[in-house]
């Protein structure tokens, strides 16, 4: 898909970027009135710390797990649940969480780290209409209730896939106060991530007959981002797509 950025949806550009360790840009180009919605998260200095890399790669893993599962007939809330599950598995590997992931799912621990929905329909509106036609009910559960659609996927639908892991103090405090959730949290390790902010990776996709087509072409892996930022610093650089973009 050819796109030129005629309009930035919105961005948060830090004023004092030297004091900010990580940046999250949520942007979109528009093409003949059709919107796009792409989020890139990257270290402000161009080099991931071990903790930044761990969280970034956890989110990238959930994004790619969803991309592998997307096809016609799949229920979008199940894709949200899949992303949540990957996040919980990865946060356990990092050491922030401990215990059985199935039990974490039962107490909706995923919504503490990803309080928004996995993604939304894209079209002439960035958050396009049609997410809840008659007969499709909103699921009133943490995280899932924020989904802008609960539909099953159909060929030709265009959506965002935008998982994220965030460290939001009031949500973390809420989880720590709830014995059903706090039993899964290694608070010593979690302390290290207070003030970390969050990572979101947002791509645009079209559902095809057997799977999906990825429409976004930006540096995505840690290696791609670091190489891109290093080369950008040293002169001219244009990103023309790398193997990690292909499904
Ligand atoms: Mn979006």
TrEMBL record:
Domain Peptidase M24: 24-209
Gene Ontology BP terms: proteolysis
Keyword terms of this UniProt record: Hydrolase, Manganese, Metal-binding, Metalloprotease, Protease
Keyword set includes Transferase: no
Presence of the UniProt keyword Ubl conjugation in the record: no
MF GO annotations: metal ion binding; metallopeptidase activity
Source organism, top-level taxon: Eukaryota
Cofactor: Mn(2+)
Family according to the record: Belongs to the peptidase M24B family.
Protein name: Peptidase M24 domain-containing protein
Organism expressing this protein natively: Limosa lapponica baueri
